[in-house]
Amino acid sequence: MGSPKVLNFVLVTFFLNVLIFFRAECNAATAPEVTVPQGDLQGAILFSRQNRSIFAFYGIPYGQPPIGDLRFSSPVAADAWNGTLNATVEGNVCTQYSNGAVIGDEDCLYLNVYTPQLPESGSSSLLPVMVSIHGGGFAYGSGDFEGNGPAYLLDADVVLVTMNYRLGVLGFLSTGDEAAPGNWGLKDQVLSLEWVRDNIAFFGGDPNQVTIMGNSAGGASVQLLALSDLARGLFHKYIAQSGSAFGFWPYQPSELSAQHSRALGGYLNCDSNTSTLLIECLRGLNSSTLMLADMMSGVWNTVGGSWSPTDEPDIEGALLTDSPVNLVNAGKMHDLPSISGSTRDEAATFVAGYVLVPSLLEEFLADIDNAIPNALGYSKWVDDVSAFTAGLKDFYFTDLTADRSEILYNLTLLISDNNFIYPVFRMVQTQNSMFESDQFFYSFDYRGTYSQTDMISSAMPNNSAAHADEMFYLFPQTEAIFGAARENMTANDRQMVDTMMELWTSFAITGIPTTTTGGVTWQPFAAGNNNYLRIGSDSDPTVLNLNDFQPERMQLWSDLLAASSAANSAIVFSPLRSILICLVTYFKML
Questions:
Q1: For residues 441 and 527, is the Cβ–Cβ distance under 8 A?
Q2: H or E, element range at 577
Q3: Is there a catalytic annotation at residue 346?
Q4: Who contacts 11 (Cβ-Cβ below 8 Å, separation ≥6)?
Q5: Which tens digit of pLDDT belongs to each residue from 13-51?
Q6: Which residue in 2, 103, 112, 181 is a FRET match for 475, CA 20 to 30 A apart?
Q7: The model scores a pTM over 0.85
Q8: Distance between CA atoms of residues 238 and 440, nearest Å
Q9: What is the CATH number of domain 4-303?
Q10: Of 134, 260, 334, 467, which residue is the catalytic one?
Q11: 106, 312, 346, 470: which is the annotated catalytic residue?
């Protein structure tokens, strides 16, 4: 073994030059301290990608543990603590199903704060705040350091907050009435934003300049919060990445939610004659029993759908009182500047089974008239299922004898458009027609070293810009996620980090997203142009302003939906979210 001096030199050199962010040890004399109304906190010192000092505070409780009578109830603000809170350790992740087991804890309402300055550092100005809401299909994930670290974003003058919120059955069970109206996870998000409003100034953040952002379920959450009076005034701009309140999966009607809850109660031998009796029974079970029963009972298959945001009775504390479509049409959405968009090949990971097991694709094609509606889940809300299916088949599958790689690509486009791309596009069109605030629209087309497809198999196509790929250029991905064999980032990858960091943080700071790397000014969305910012193209990180976003595909969906009841009513859940959750569980087991 080498001498201590040599080892220290190697460690220090690695730490200062590493592109992926690691935590720094710091002694009590240098550890940052902050006092908030709840009590004192002692945090840690970290360093950004450009070696900028950052003060980090982990595991700050913003809500009381939602256990006992607080399970299936609106969250309650956390109590004060005695002494100094050790804010160098993250709080529990929320209970979720992962790797074939139940992990996490119901005591999980914690958040992390990262700031480049504290008030006593001499700066009199407060910094804009970015609050990141994690994705994961409302079923898994967390706001932890591993996937949500500040190394990239905090090279700019912003404060970053990440949080946990209740997930799955514990976060979104609803009886459709006052006994348990639902949306607990979204209400946790609101409580965390109230904590930010009341406390972020102690960390150098400006409570009057808050931008919320999220990917996938986080992106849908962002737009759902923009529909709720509970969240009004708690944020001032938002960024919705690959998630839309108009999507086919972030919402299910209360009738379906209640049916799902009763089915789960029946599986667990709970008395469901009344909602009150059902909730009393479910509150008496431990969280692992609930989670395993939910996964094993087959309720998702027999009822359809999963635990999702839903509409609630119009009572005090309600977050959503109608479907997102109806709320938008009623003018309930906050008129705020926003960024929204999607990746070019959103569903590249969703078709993994067809890529890795070709016989599955042949089975799909052999029964395509039934396979398409079964996969997309529109049978319950389309007036004429046969006509809707024919329209999709004629557009995406014109030749069933074509090369299978072409058919797989078209299947990817179909699922991408259904689950993500068209709902995001439809929302930005609607916002543009209703709001005075600028709306910015993008398509992330860059395929760099990192991709979600790598987490499945090397046999996956290596040219896709898949769902959540843009996250690799906003938050560093650690060895724990990609493994020791992960390639180093290329110069183009590093340029994309610069581009994404600049676009997102400049929007949070000024409301106008700009980047110095491409020399392009991102133009606000205009309905007549359907313009967007193309962020990269394959391995080229160049950004371009373009017009006429996917005109044929977007027009197809517009026409098909206009002819169906879905155009003017609630859009229900697509079972593809169950597929996504199963795929993610599979990824984590690799």
A1: no
A2: helix 576-589
A3: yes
A4: none
A5: 333 343 334 444 344 448 999 999 999 999 999 999 999
A6: 103
A7: yes
A8: 11
A9: 3.40.50.1820
A10: 467
A11: 346
